């Protein structure tokens, strides 16, 4: 559920300045991205979460509203260390539990306000077990149980629990996106944005470290893609059918490439595909890997509800759907499949299906079989065949 009143929050309005901590992305050195993710997650949960980060001040140029799973800002540098390899302008993505989609397992999603923060901080402080000086609660299940310092059952269904649950989901999205960028490092700067580094936005200053949910916001910096989302380009008005087909084929090639890296994006939609330097070029760039999943060795990849493992097929169906602009003309069935369908369903249905294809597409994909006209011929013989050299599909 989207909270419209939080589409532009005061800290992120245009012209606002943000005091961040920035850690540049290291050069590829062969380190396993999964091990790197685990070590960084452990660092997030410790008082040394600022290690390796340097101060960075940015000014908000534009807030990409409404905020959904994350706060997405176009920013420019006001002050930074000379060693930071950052462009003057870039995209800052913050997985801030306070803004955007807010999840809840105890009540309907509710808006955040400053009055909620103090009780949440107090609840986290109360749940810290004084007997474990180095153990910092991480996820929901890490807090003390019924027989420890705090009686768990007495805290059931409290608002602060929903706040922690929201943070947990956004933190998981942050880790998923960082991992996806690192596993797709060879595509950065071309087919996907370049990951410049990770950031921390302190939100609880002047106190001892409690928990990453209350002390800081996780985020990262990626390159700004100058272009237009595909959902803002209309086929037939802004570009021809032929050029739209060219774009769709490049999108499908990109999804195939990502799949070869054993990655599922899990949220391929037209708004998440940017046409770089449109209308001069038609280079698609895929963004927003917050729902991505990477297959680990000896471990099957997780498929999110509503998403399939064959994203190429799903993307092809989306691009061909008239509701999404009709970017793609699906490849025809092979002639062998057409003949098989005709034998099973009847010649009329196969002929009718081919004739329902838009004429400008049908003329490119099919040709009429000679001597197949006449009374009731449509019910008795196959009247069309696939042109030689046309790419076909079997399913």
From TrEMBL:
Gene3D superfamilies: Transferase(Phosphotransferase) domain 1
InterPro entries: Kinase-like_dom_sf (IPR011009), Meiotic_Drive_Suppr_Kinase (IPR052396)
PANTHER family (alphabetical): SERINE/THREONINE-PROTEIN KINASE YRZF-RELATED, SERINE_THREONINE-PROTEIN KINASE YRZF-RELATED
Protein name: Protein kinase domain-containing protein
Domain of life: Eukaryota
């Amino acid at each position: 559920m989207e909270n419209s009143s939080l589409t532009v929050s005061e800290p992120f309005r245009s012209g606002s300045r943000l005091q961040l901590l920035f850690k540049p992305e290291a050069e590829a050195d062969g380190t396993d991205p999964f091990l790197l993710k685990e070590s960084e997650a452990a660092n997030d949960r410790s008082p040394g979460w600022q290690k390796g980060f340097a101060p960075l001040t940015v000014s908000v140029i534009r807030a990409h509203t409404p905020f959904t799973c994350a706060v997405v800002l176009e920013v420019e540098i006001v002050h930074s260390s000379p060693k930071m390899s950052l462009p003057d302008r870039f995209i800052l993505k913050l997985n801030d539990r306070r803004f955007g989609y807010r999840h809840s397992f105890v009540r309907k999603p509710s808006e955040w306000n400053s009055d909620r923060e103090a009780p949440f901080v107090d609840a986290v402080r109360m749940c810290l077990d004084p007997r474990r000086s180095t153990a910092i609660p991480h996820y929901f299940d890490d807090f003390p149980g019924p027989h420890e310092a705090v009686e768990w059952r007495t805290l059931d269904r409290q608002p602060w629990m929903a706040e922690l649950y929201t943070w947990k989901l956004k933190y998981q999205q942050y880790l998923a996106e960082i991992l996806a960028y690192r596993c797709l490092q060879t595509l950065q700067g071309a087919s996907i944005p370049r990951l410049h580094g990770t950031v921390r936005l302190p939100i609880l200053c002047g106190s001892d470290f409690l928990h990453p949910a209350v002390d800081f916001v996780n985020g990262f910096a990626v390159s700004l893609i100058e272009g237009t989302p595909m959902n803002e380009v209309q086929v037939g008005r802004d570009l021809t059918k032929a050029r739209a087909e060219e774009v769709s084929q490049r999108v499908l090639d990109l999804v195939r490439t990502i799949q070869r890296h054993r990655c599922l994006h899990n949220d391929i939609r037209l708004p998440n595909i940017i046409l770089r330097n449109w209308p001069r070029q038609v280079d698609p760039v895929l963004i927003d890997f917050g729902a991505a999943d990477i297959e680990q060795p000896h471990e099957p990849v997780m498929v999110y509800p509503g998403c399939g493992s064959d994203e190429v097929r799903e993307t092809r169906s989306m691009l061909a759907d008239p509701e999404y602009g009709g970017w793609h003309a699906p490849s025809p069935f092979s002639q062998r499949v057409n003949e098989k369908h005709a034998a099973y369903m009847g010649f009329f249905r196969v002929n009718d299906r081919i004739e329902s294809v838009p004429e400008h597409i049908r003329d490119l994909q099919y040709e009429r079989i000679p001597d197949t006209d006449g009374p009731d011929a449509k019910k008795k013989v196959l009247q069309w065949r696939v042109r030689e050299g046309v790419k076909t599909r079997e399913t």
